[in-house]
Amino acid sequence: MNKGNRKSNQSLNTGIAQKIKQIRNSIGMSLQELSQKTGLSMTFLSRLENDKANISILNLRAVANALGVPIASLFSDDRQSQIKVSRAGQRRKMILMVFKGKKVTEEWLLSDSSAKLEPAVVSLPPGTNGGPPFSHEGEEFVWVLKGNVRFHLGAEVFNLEQGDSLYYPATIPHQFFNDTGKKALLLFVATPWSF
């Protein structure tokens, strides 16, 4: 067996070991009870949960049955728990600034802040801007959903129209303006940063 396959099997075993322990603890089953239900020794099960033993499919089926779960659930990698749905009426909104009585607002498209991306829609009324030049760690992507905006990135200026997009390292001081007589909507996708 080559090293790549060995590494892949080790991470598969680690995932199964962690899943067995997690499920067993979540249902309040002791190692001794699992041993009694499966016919496998406590020593073996302990070694298995600590990723120090391999398990056959036959024994894995016995463990899954004893835990009351489908065998396939022991292979899942918890990607399902990373799915996030944000309903239109439940999103966080904030006023970024008030400019001559006009509110520049931001609506976060994810209600959970644990994601690696932070998408938001910024509403920019006519004749307003997003505030003074600003820089921070991370990256940003902007897509103009509606209207026209003028974007300053350091010394460069970009005039963006509906449908245009822009990517930049957020460490570059950035600022945006709506110089037109119509409202602009911008989709921002950023890597989260700390205030």
Q: Would you give an account of this structure?
A:
The protein has 195 residues and is an alpha+beta fold. The chain folds into 2 domains: 3-81, lambda repressor-like DNA-binding domains (434 Repressor (Amino-terminal Domain)), CATH 1.10.260; 88-190, Jelly Rolls, CATH 2.60.120. It is built from 4 helices and 10 strands; from the N terminus they run H-H-H-H-E-E-E-E-E-E-E-E-E-E. It has helices at residues 3-26, 31-38, 42-49, 57-67; strands spanning 93-99, 102-108, 118-124, 128-129, 139-146, 149-153, 156-160, 165-169, 174-178, 184-190. The strands form 2 sheets. A 6-stranded antiparallel beta sheet has the order 1-2-3-10-5-8, with no helix packed on it. It has a 4-stranded antiparallel beta sheet with strand order 4-9-6-7, with no helix packed on it. Strand 6 (149-153) and strand 7 (156-160) form a beta hairpin.
Short description:
The chain is an alpha+beta fold. 26% of the residues lie in helices and 30% in strands.
Identify the strand order in the major beta sheet. Answer: 1-2-3-10-5-8
SS summary, helix count:
4
* Average pLDDT figure: 84
The largest sheet, given as strand count, sense and whether it forms a barrel, is: 6 strands, antiparallel
SS content category: alpha+beta
CATH class of the largest domain: Mainly Beta
Domain tally: 2
The CATH topology of the largest domain turns out to be Jelly Rolls
CATH superfamily of the largest domain: Jelly Rolls
CATH architecture of the largest domain: Sandwich
Q: What is the terminal-to-terminal distance?
A: 49 Å
- Give the beta-strand count: 10
Listing every helix as H and every strand as E from the N terminus to the C terminus, the arrangement reads HHHHEEEEEEEEEE
